[in-house]
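Re: beginner question about structure tokens

> Can someone show what the tokenized structure looks like for a real chain? I only ever see the sequence side.

Sure, here's an example I had lying around. Input first:
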Amino acid sequence: MDVQQAAAPQDIRNVINFLRGSKSGLKNKTGVLNGSRREYFKGKSAIKALQSDAYAKLKNVPPIDPTDDSARKLLHTMIQYTFFLGVDRGNPSGTSSSSPRHIQIMQQQAFDPDAYYVWFYDGPQWKTYLGGALLVTVILAGVMFPLWPVTLRIGVWYLSMAGFGVIGLFIALSIFRLIFYIITVVAASPGIWIFPKLFADVGFIDSFIPGWDWDIPPPKKVKKKRGEKEGVDGEKPLRKRK
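And the corresponding structure tokens:
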């Protein structure tokens, strides 16, 4: 397969890299092929990715018209380079229905929107190489710490102390706001939270806005009785007269 992939022209490789990237929005699933796990996708999802605005902004790629069959034809011609191949899906590999399904490569290869295709290409590897090199550099730097210049070691020590100080301050703030909340629950119910969004899924600055707020529970939803569904503008439907 490496020979076929190496023979692919650059514009085809650009399309493949786009599909393997996050900007394409291609939904990949995990399957089991010959005992090993591999990602696969549905043909309809790949066609949708090539008809997207993100693909239209790319350079040095084959043009795609969203109104015709050009996306499917392009994907069909790309099968010969074995970046992906069509597969049949089988039963789940485990006892659970959510387990990865067994997949088997089809004998006849063609691109069908309703068929599934397994990846034999993992995308550009420069990020993996860069991450590995960075990890090795950090390990070597840590091992050779005694050989660092004195001024550099002192600077690292101050930075580490500052980091520990920030962590300690955050823990102290968390304990203080909890104690303050317990006191205000007793003295001024329903209680006051300092920095109520401190642990919320928001940005760093938004975590400290507002500075305090009452711990008011959300209003309970009133369950409507059967036959009393509200109509337009909150009006209840008229009941039939007996």
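Each token stands for a local structural state, so reading them left to right follows the chain. The first strand starts at residue 28 and ends at 33.
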